[in-house]
Amino acid sequence: MRQARNSAALWAATGNSRGHEVIRRRSFLAVLGGERAGTRILLQEPDPDAHELAELTELAGRSAGPVDVEDPFSSTDLSHLGMRNWQMPIMVRPPAPVPAPAMEVIRVQRAHELQTAEQIVIEGFELTRFTPYRPGEMFPTTLTEQPGVDVFLAVLDGEAVGAGVTVVHDGFGSHYWVAAPSAHRSRGAGRAVMLGSLAPMANLPVTLTASRLGRPLYESLGFTAVTSSTWWSSQ
């Protein structure tokens, strides 16, 4: 439930900063983007009723671009949408001290820093929908002005080598979009980003949804898998 709420906070902030329509219902939040950003739907309850499910289906069907649905409860069958699906673990870290990172980690404050983080995330997650690159399309300049949202960069020898986003909402923290350029993977950039961005949230429980490759790192930082989230995607 906490992961659901924090994901909704992130995507509402992202949608608002992009100027996209944000729809809130009891059981889901939807952000309606354009041809490249697509539609993002986040289930907020494990039991959407027939009317909510019909609206969700209609929103997915008329999307101008790709559709992504996140179900942290893994309880709603969306196979009728004809999309592929997979599961990833939701992990939680209790409040605890955070060691210092091995490299400098900065909180993004300037437009060029945000663009650097944006490019790292697009490359790291292979978000081909955002290529060719258009500055500010994924991370608009107003993103870090949204309540509870921060973007971080890991810097080594003057070069940005990792990026990540955090959200603090209702007493919980969450991590998103932790990435490193291909030239710096498996060289400590991801760990540095995590440590540097965890530090301001050390007194909070923190959640994240882990990829298979990222899970060992998160476990080493004190995160424990508690359940599985089901993701559906048209791509």
From TrEMBL:
One of its GO terms (molecular function) is acyltransferase activity, transferring groups other than amino-acyl groups. It comes from the Bacteria. Residues 104-235 form the N-acetyltransferase domain. InterPro entries: Acyl_CoA_acyltransferase, GNAT_dom. This is GNAT family N-acetyltransferase.
